[in-house]
Amino acid sequence: IGDDLMLFEETVPERCRYRVQVILPVEGPYDYLAPDGGDEGERFLPLGQIVMVPVGKRILPGVIWGGEPDTSVPQAKLRQIEAITDLPPLKDELRQFIEWVASYTLFPRGSVLKMVLSAPQALESVAGQKLYRQGDTDTEDTSFRITPARQKVLDLLAGSGGWTAVELAREAGVSGSVIKGLEQAGVVEGYLEVPDFSFPLPPSGIKGPVLSEDQRAAADDLINKVRAGNFAAVVLDGVTGSGKTEVYFEAIEAALGEGQQILVLLPEIALSSQWLDRFEQRFGVRPAEWHSELTPALRRKTWRAVSEGKAPVVVGARSSLFLPYEKLGLIIVDEEHEASFKQEEGVCYHARDMAVVRARGCHCPVVLASATPALETMINVQNGRYERLVLSGRHGGAGMPDVELVDLRFDKPERLDSGQGWLSQALRGAIRQTLEAGEQAMLFLNRRGYAPLTLCRTCGHRLQCPHCTAWLVEHRRFSRLQCHHCGYSTRLPDSCPSCDAEGSLVPCGPGVERIVEEAKKLFPEARIGLMASDTMTSPAATREMIERIEKREVNLLVGTQVVAKGYHFPYLTLVGVVDADLGLFGGDLRAAERTFQLLHQVAGRAGRAEHKGRVILQTSDPQHPVMQTLKAGDRDKFLEIEAETRSRGGLPPFGRLAAVIVSGPEEAELDNFCATMARAIPTIDGARILGPAPAPLSLLRGKFRRRFLVMTRRSVAPQAVARSWLQGLKSPSRVRVVVDIDPYSF
Ligand code: ADP
Ligand code: ZN
């Protein structure tokens, strides 16, 4: 039989072989045979072609990758490409970017590719498939009733049309017959139309404001770079309100004029409604958006439009960096210092740094805009790797606010009736003055909920998340306790779960809800508004709150860091920071830098128009360099001190760092493997490996976590060190080892 088979194989004509990279967490690529071409014969597939291939029992997307197929494997052992998509092939630039990100982050190429092919809807052709949209709400069928299942489908379609039946059924969690029923009644409409995968091109001729001299100089510099079509990394450095957005809008206009696509990365797309409105005012159309909340229909439309060059401007979260642009001509990273650009789940990468890499591959400029550029970024300016354009003051000459420090050790907030107070005499006085003058005040505390900790007065027990090393946070609005790490939530118990004492659980410390409570008591006449990520549940809710503030229906705003981000409130003249020290503790090497950036940004909310602003920082450590430099308004001094501290410790950007997080469900098994890892630590010149230590959250979502730190000299790549150390180690199946290059929080 064996001989027969050999004979048979030889008579089959040799088919073309391709190396296909699939979207699994594997290095790959694997070899496949060309698809059966039928009568027309084989079709030649170019590099980058997106195809569907069988892997095990599944059919997965993959991409024709480079490299020589292994011809020693007999043809009969190979599987065949299942289908060829009708999408444009991924460009060389994008495939090289994927390679680069994979080798830099140490994540498998397939995992990085998966971020690119992140819109499965886009991969399927919808040609010849019915799409659905809203139909007539008045049906003639009198027996027709809107059941809850039907309502779910209608709610989805109210958001946007263009869904396939399969997508609708999956998203609404209903069966296909529900959609059929709706269609028969005419309440939804199925149509066979080639959908329009394009976003409008902004009409030319709309002009921005007349720029000031240094704005003009900065804009012209960027415009020249866009037209030259070369790589350049440019830091656009100017205080909040100095007109950075107006300046990069000019660069966007120039890139549009060149027929290029533009990517604008914003730290939190969900909070960017004001930015989108402003873009629309300036350019007359809305840009394409890319983030996790898009409907399948919009995902498909956007992904396709981007790949066909029919989405001129894309605004997105960090994931939009992995879209298949047809002709990317400019990248803007707004608020480049923001921590949310660092992705710490899945592939660990920093979107700002990867934006620079992508821009280099696309031969286009990348603009890093910030009022408080990251230390890394400023060191890159000093090294001459990045250029810097400076906008000197606030547009229209509005002054910077005065910053005052209140020493909480001396101006202790007194107790209000039975509860504790959090606002000092100085801050209360300033709020009163501001409100009496008809202006607005804002109280900032970067903590959601009512109280960060609930404690039993009888036995001292603290309520902790069962799945994480974290206290449960009380949210009085929902009468619940919540874990801010895993989302676990439970009702506030009447008695202590440990000693059963009744009514002895007390909230400790303030969250924003508690500040609202205190403010209501102190200023009963004030119109108080609360803004936190969990109260702003939708873009519409955010928009409504912003409108209320703009119309001065709210005159005392209490908020978490969502209020720090880019909003302009012309009548806001006082900012009070309830606990300026909050971010300074914890094992984050950037704690001081991040506190400085956040407080600087919050302070920048005060006094934007003709009114001078005033900022009050409540602190227990007024001598801290962060407080002193904020008071002096001396950002560069802060960076100098920070650079010195980090350079002394060999910390980034003066040394390099990788965190190796080892996690598993069994503590003993985990510690065992960590001990094995520790014994295998190699001696490498210019590198140290520290650990294992408990990771900052040593229990997260029910997994125990340990951490090693790889610290190297600038000249030694932590990737190489980590690779040579981890290569030979095989972890037990339930233990995961994840490397985070340039870790952020640890
Ligand atoms: P940044 O991005 O640095 O915070 P913006 O570009 O948002 O600054 O500018 C702050 C405010 O000043 C915005 O309302 C903007 O429209 C306005 N502005 C900036 N430059 C000009 C200008 N040259 N003419 C008129 N208004 C301007
Ligand atoms: Zn938890």
Automatic annotation (TrEMBL):
Enzyme Commission number(s): 5.6.2.4
Cofactor needs: Zn(2+)
Catalysed reaction, written as an equation: Couples ATP hydrolysis with the unwinding of duplex DNA by translocating in the 3'-5' direction; ATP + H2O = ADP + phosphate + H(+)
Binding site for Zn(2+) 2: 465, 468, 483, 486
Keywords, sorted A to Z: ATP-binding, DNA replication, DNA-binding, Helicase, Hydrolase, Isomerase, Metal-binding, Nucleotide-binding, Primosome, Zinc
Domain Helicase ATP-binding: 225-391
Keyword Lipoprotein set for record: no
Enzyme class: isomerase
Binding-site positions, Zn(2+) 1: 456, 459, 496, 499
PANTHER family, A to Z: PRIMOSOMAL PROTEIN N
Annotated family: Belongs to the helicase family. PriA subfamily.
Record function comment: Initiates the restart of stalled replication forks, which reloads the replicative helicase on sites other than the origin of replication. Recognizes and binds to abandoned replication forks and remodels them to uncover a helicase loading site. Promotes assembly of the primosome at these replication forks.
Subunit structure: Component of the replication restart primosome.
Name this protein carries in UniProt: Replication restart protein PriA
